User: Fold this.
Amino acid sequence: MNVKGFAKRFDEVDAMPLEGGGFIRWLITHRDGAPTFSMRLINVPKGKSTPAHSHDYEHEIFIIEGEGTATIGNKNFKISKDFFLFIPGENYHTIKAETDMKMICIVPIKAAIDILGK
Amino acid sequence: MNVKGFAKRFDEVDAMPLEGGGFIRWLITHRDGAPTFSMRLINVPKGKSTPAHSHDYEHEIFIIEGEGTATIGNKNFKISKDFFLFIPGENYHTIKAETDMKMICIVPIKAAIDILGK
Assistant:
């Protein structure tokens, strides 16, 4: 692949539905030539949640808008704009939105390949 | 290391000056147990820039606030809130802020270890 740099607006990428009522845009993936990690933008409407699950890879999340409650393992955290979250692999996690939320969520490129395919 | 998940506000992390007039907060690093990539928050005041340089690792950036111009290789991009950037390794790059800017910038964990030390 001839890997090229770029700058785009998030809404140039299609949104896909997520279990729990949110939606996700895969902004940068292996298909762009990203070698190590993948950036996604997730929107969660008020009252909805991100998927409640656990997996072998980590998340790093930054909250851009909104308020909610994050569960990581057996701990709850009140979160809002300007919070960041580290969710290590094998930790159960979910985020419940108390207002409309918008967040960046990064995963290892291996997870992007597993979820999206090559 | 006993790796634990957490949620924190960005201003719980100290800001460090960046060449070009901005400042950086290393939000999540290997010191937290992050195995693959590191999340930083960068603020660039109006008229200042991120470092103008190139290196062997990639950046994935999301613009949270502000407007400016990104240079990637020999291309310029007008960017503002809600833009995302992929800067592959070995590409010269800089972002010049035309208003106060705030952005998330992710790097591979190897870069975090090289820059911060173990």
